[in-house]
Structures are given as C-alpha cells and as structure tokens.
C-alpha cells in the first residue's frame, strides 16, 4: 500500500510539509481505539534471536531510527509501533533554533536520496526533555549538538548543557560534530578539539551514579588517516562506540535535478561509502568498539551488508521514507533467518 498509494501521493508535495503532515496524521490515528494494536501486529517482530546487548544496553532488535527524523521527541512512542528496536531523537541544541532558511529539504527521486540543509532546527533541550518524561518503554538515543551562534571554542559548553539536561531520559548519547549544515561544525572532528570535547563529556559522565554510553557520529567524507584518528580517539577517550555515517557532501554519480543543492546527501548513493567506513573501522580497530551502521539502507540485503561489515546495529532514515515502514520488519526477518540457518 505504501509503495503504490501512499508514497506517490505524499511525494507530490513539499517534503518538509509532508513530514509535519505525516507526524500529525500518525498522532491522530494512534488516538483511535485499536489502531496501536493493529500497527503492532502488522509491523513488530519479536524473537529472542533478534535481541542484542550492545554497549551495556539490551536492544529488542538491531534496527533503529536515525536522528533527524524525530528531532523534537514528538513521535517516538508512535514510531516504535512500526517495529524499531530503538529511536534516536535530535539533534538537540541547548537553545531553540529555526535552522536554515526554507526550502531546505529536497527529494532526489531518480537517485532515491535526500539532500537536507536543515541546520539543527529544533525546539531546544528543555522542550525535548519535557516530552521524554512521558516515555514508558522506548529505548532512546539522544543526539546532541551546538547552537549555530555558539563559536567552536565555546562548543564544549553546549554539548555539556545538553548532556546534563537529557541524562535522566535517554539510554545513550550521540555527539554530532559531523553535520555539514552548521557552519564550521565539522572542524570539531579534528583530532585535538574532538578529543578535548569527548574527554570533557566523559569526565562529566563519570560523575554520575551510572555512566551512560557516549557515541560519536562521523562523516563519510573522512579520509583513511582521519578514520585512524577516530579509532585512536575512541581508545583514548573511552567512549562507547561510533555511528557511521552521517550525510555526505559528495555529489558523485547523481542524476536528479536537485543534485547541486547545498546540504548533506543521504540515501542509496551513500550505501557503498558508509559500508566502506564501517568495514575500515571494524578491521583496523580489530572490533575494539561497537559501530552503528547507517547510510543507504533501502532493503534487508543492505542492512545485512552493514552488519557483515562490522556493524552491531543499524539505523534507517531515507530508506524509511522511500520504502515505508514494512522495511523494518523485512530487515528483522532477514536477520532472524540468518541466525536460524
């Protein structure tokens, strides 16, 4: 139904407006008695063989929703009904911000991709925390960043503010220094400032009664030398793992009209590079830390490829938009078949 009826209709309209409409629609139908039970029965697959324990957390299944979809923690309860094992909210900044001027979200239909230059648009950490307080049983990752107006030499404070605010209400943290849509943000991926930032968060983490896993989300555009630096940084700082990868600034091989738009590219064109980064990190580190694989997962085969390359978990975003919610169950079925064969 999604491929032949819902998606063709939604894809007629502006993608950002469709995103907000879809949120409102899902909220509405989930208030109708019986709908939540129907969604669960259709989309959720539970089996002991799907469970994973990664960085000290038990996941019902290894398929999550990547950050950027539910930025403000508005829909995580409802989205979990589609079968996700975990939901990553954000990127969250200390203060609310509008993000970049519209139009800032583009579908590249021929490439099955999306370009976004949203710019960390979100309602700020206080609004997000209020919503997270209502969480009952959804495993939540908190993706944190800095405000656009905060200079890089003061960025550490923004990350610490978000870390403190979200600490009681998320299960793990993700430090986002790899978005291409906040000016100069990617400079924080350089070895010295990144090591300093992660050490600072780890020191704060260790003051808590029970520390929470901190992960680093990296760009797919890093060189092998930079990826080796990432491996060193994980070892030195003691963070829990890496999310590979964020969106890319590459436009190689694109066919769609909007291919020249500024922003981060996600979707099928990212599949190969994201898998290469996962494999490189896993092999060069000798499996020293968990990796969450994300980028270009549009099928069960794509997800299995990421897992085979060394990912412990996977996340969807653009594939979820293009393929629909049935993709999650399809991936979990394929993983289950593989574990039982």
UniProtKB/TrEMBL annotation:
Q: In which pathway does it act?
A: Pyrimidine metabolism; UMP biosynthesis via de novo pathway; orotate from (S)-dihydroorotate (quinone route): step 1/1
Swiss-Prot/TrEMBL cofactor(s): FMN
The record's remark on the cofactor is:
Binds 1 FMN per subunit.
Q: Which UniProt keywords apply?
A: Cell membrane, Flavoprotein, FMN, Membrane, Oxidoreductase, Pyrimidine biosynthesis
Q: Which InterPro entries match?
A: Aldolase_TIM, DHO_dehydrogenase, Dihydroorotate_DH_1_2, Dihydroorotate_DH_2, Dihydroorotate_DH_cat, Dihydroorotate_DH_CS
Instruction: Decide whether keyword Flavoprotein is in the record.
Output: yes
UniProt-annotated location(s):
Cell membrane; Membrane
Gene Ontology cellular-component terms listed: cytoplasm; plasma membrane
The UniProt similarity line reads: Belongs to the dihydroorotate dehydrogenase family. Type 2 subfamily.
Alphabetical list of HAMAP family matching this protein? DHO_dh_type2 (MF_00225)
Write the protein's name: Dihydroorotate dehydrogenase (quinone)
């Amino acid at each position: 139904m999604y491929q032949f009826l819902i998606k063709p209709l939604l894809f007629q309209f502006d993608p950002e407006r469709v995103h907000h409409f879809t949120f409102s629609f899902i909220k509405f139908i989930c208030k109708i008695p019986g709908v939540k039970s129907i969604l669960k029965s259709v989309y959720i697959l539970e089996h002991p063989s799907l469970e994973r324990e990664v960085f000290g957390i038990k996941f019902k299944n290894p398929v999550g929703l990547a950050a950027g979809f539910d930025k403000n923690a508005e829909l995580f309860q409802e989205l979990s009904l589609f079968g996700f094992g975990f939901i990553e909210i954000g990127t969250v900044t200390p203060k609310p911000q509008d993000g970049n001027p519209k139009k800032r979200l583009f579908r590249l239909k021929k490439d099955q991709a999306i370009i976004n230059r949203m710019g960390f648009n979100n309602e700020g950490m206080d609004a997000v925390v209020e919503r997270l307080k209502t969480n009952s049983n959804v495993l939540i990752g908190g993706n944190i960043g800095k405000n656009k107006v905060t200079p890089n030499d003061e960025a550490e404070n923004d990350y610490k503010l978000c870390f403190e605010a979200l600490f009681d209400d998320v299960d793990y943290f993700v430090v986002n220094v790899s978005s291409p849509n906040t000016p100069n943000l990617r400079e924080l991926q350089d070895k010295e400032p990144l090591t300093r930032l992660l050490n600072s968060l780890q020191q704060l983490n260790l003051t808590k009664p029970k520390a929470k896993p901190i992960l680093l989300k990296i760009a797919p555009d890093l060189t092998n030398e930079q990826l080796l630096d990432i491996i060193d940084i994980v070892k030195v700082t003691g963070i829990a793992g890496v999310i590979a990868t964020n969106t890319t600034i590459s436009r190689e091989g694109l066919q769609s009209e909007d291919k020249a738009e500024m922003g981060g590219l996600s979707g099928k064109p990212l599949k190969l590079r994201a898998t290469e980064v996962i494999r490189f990190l896993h092999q060069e580190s000798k499996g020293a830390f968990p990796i969450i694989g994300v980028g270009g997962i549009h099928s069960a085969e794509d997800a299995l490829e990421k897992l085979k390359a060394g990912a412990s978990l996977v996340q969807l975003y653009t594939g979820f938009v293009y393929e629909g919610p049935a993709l999650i169950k399809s991936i979990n079925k394929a993983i289950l078949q593989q574990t039982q064969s």
